[in-house]
Amino acid sequence: MESRLHRHGGRVTRRTRTTMPGRIAAGRVVVVSADIGAGHDAAADELAHRLTGQGLRVERLNFLSLLPRPLNTTVRETYRGMLRWLPWCYDALFSATSRSPSSVELLRATLRPVARRLLARLPVDTRAVVTTFPFANQLLGPLRAAGLINAPLVTYVTDFAVHPTWISPGVDLYCVVHELSRQQAVAGGAGPVRVVRPLVNARFAAPAELSVRAARHRFGLPEQARLALIVAGSWGIGEVARTAAEVLATGCAEPVVVCGRNERLHRRLRRFPGHVLGWVDDMPTLMHAADVVVENAGGLTCQEALASGRPTITYRPIPGHGRANAALLSRSALTSYIASPQRLRSTLTDLMARDAHAEPDTRVDMASVVAEAIPPVRWG
User: Fold this and answer.
1) Residue 31, SS3 per DSSP
2) What are the tens digits of pLDDT across the range 168-189?
3) pTM reported for the whole predicted model
């Protein structure tokens, strides 16, 4: 028996029917992401890997590549620049779009000229479209609602908090990683919404390949020290140096700072008396080497830490989506949200005294949800 999503006007229903075992639907799944930060692409990579493992063909599409040059690069670099140099500006923009439905409608209208280029990039045998980037919904959703896209449109929200830019008419199904996220999405007008397992690499939740001692040896870290892993996404955004100094000042943990691709931050911290790393290819092993993770955005790296079973602190969250995620994480108790440095030492001490282990994840697999949404093939 297979469960499928079917659209009737503006209403989505679920229909169950019997299919022949062992047969895989013809066509392919198009996964639309964006190379802006690493979280959207990483989720798309993991989904593509899981779908391929189920025998489905996957086509990847970078949403920013649809924008005319040099606008595609300008969008990415403007976003990076605001986060790094004008965080107050990004926070104001995020808040304004959170409160004003007209701002989302304006975004939708701005993207409309790209519709023809998008439709030309969708293969004729597309069986489902999945998005991991919110702006993609504002273009794909109206096309789906107008009947210009026949395949079901599913979105995976990469953050805990569901910003209004994720929500658009025409999206058949929204997938989020927590029940509070589902409630927020429904309150914002999304529907239907399902809670799914985060799209993080299976190695984070799998039993560690190396002992803690061997994991630390791989990164040149001390075997006996208490280690606090400080992460700030692929761009190394936020008050990372200040956080590292405050963790060091507690005296209860040695900071291990991951600068990502932020070479300026890496140079700035080269004389820091902790442990400073640039880009890390093997984050599952590095997290296994740590006693606690300190994060500031609530995005992919936070979900990886939680999947690893490492106690996680949300501290000095970045503006915009970082603070929105922090608020929801605080309500969910998934991480310890610290609003002041005075609480840092006691929280680190408490969390490092706990045994690190990953709880079994009973949420449904995102790839299975997508496979269910694909319409059945009519045979003969």
Assistant:
1) strand
2) 999 999 999 999 999 999 999 9
3) 0.89
